[in-house]
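Notebook p. 47: complex prediction with adenosine-5'-triphosphate.
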Amino acid sequence: MRIRLDGVTKRFGAVTAVDGLTLELEPGRLVALLGPSGCGKSTTLYMLAGVLRPTAGDIYFDDVRVNDVPPQRRNVGMVFQSYALYPHMTVFENIAFPLRMQRLPEGEIRRRVHEMAELVRVEALLDRRPEQLSGGQQQRVALARALVKRPALLLLDEPLSNLDAQLRQAMRAEIRRIQRELGVTAVLVTHDQTEAMTIADWVVVMNAGRCVAQGTPYELYQTPPNRFTASFIGHPPMNWLQGRVSGTRLQVDGLPVYLPLPAAARDDEVAIGIRPHHVQLVAPGRGHLDGRVTMIELLGHEKLVTVEAGRSVASMPGGAGDGAAGLRLQALVPADAAVVEGEAVGVRLPVSRLHLFRLSDGSRVALPGAAARRPVAGPVAAAPGDAVADEPAEESAGTAG
Ligand SMILES: Nc1ncnc2c1ncn2[C@@H]1O[C@H](COP(=O)(O)OP(=O)(O)OP(=O)(O)O)[C@@H](O)[C@H]1O
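Predicted complex, structure tokens below:
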């Protein structure tokens, strides 16, 4: 089923929870509504369910306007964070409940409950009560109950947030499998960007009741259209610097050099984002700036290295001097990279990996060739002591001024 929201607004007294939201969701897709707490995700979901009515605007299921259609007539299945299973009923009866409400014949009910229990893999648990199930099992049952009436739209409200990390990952894959197998259009609400990115075909990023970006997870990660999306998507989060574009020159505040851009852009003050795994650590004096390693956090097969460039590095060869005071960057490097806390390092910022956003409105500065590459296989970080390898001509820095 195709879903269309046309200028949908929801106000609760003085609070505007959803503000003129216009969206079109393709049939069969799993769409994630992603955004910080209070941005209007759940309110949007409840309007799709029919539990809340828009204050203004229209909602269409295929081409039918559903603003006035009550929840029970919308053919929507819903799964909540809290599972909301009926505690006094067995798993079988929980799953059968929506079919009993439809007064289907007993044989048909049995057949469909078993079919659904098989799909979500709870056939062995049909005689148990919810209290005798683990969180993950309860969530599977909730999913089966939402799907048993073959809804045209599946709504998932933070369905995995009560599960531990490992189970959450397993259930993500399960929801994806089941949604694909049934081909049902689904909308998932989450504030967890990893969840949205791993599970969804399409991600709608919301802030303050509005859609600020939408696209495939890959597009939003590779070329975030604005600063809000860039800072919200990706983990560990982007590093942020500030600077100014003039023609094909990028002057980063605190850097003694300017970086040549692959194409000219309008002169503007910019926020400069770079993901930690694109920050390269090199020998002091061999990068764009020098700093000191102030923290190392081991994350498994990688480690997150915090580098601060301040006044203390002014005297180092190639040091950034006073202008670099307060620059702080994080680099993600292989766990076995030879980096030591307290040591001086050089930091290289590959121009093609920089994301530029206008300070005025947060919009992306489009630069052909910049930050549009596919992710490289393998680490890009070099250990201190390594030279900056084969620096392409267009990425070499000029002297500021
Ligand atoms: N029934 C209500 N009465 C008044 N204000 C409400 C009501 N429901 C939601 N709001 C407000 O509307 C805004 C959006 O809430 P909503 O629950 O949609 O956000 P959310 O993005 O789902 O947040 P979370 O991730 O915390 O669940 C918030 O400011 C919230 O306080």
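Notes: The longest strand covers residues 257-274. The helical segments are 41-49, 91-101, 106-119, 135-147, 165-182, 193-199, 217-222, 227-232.
Next step: compare against the earlier run before touching the bench.
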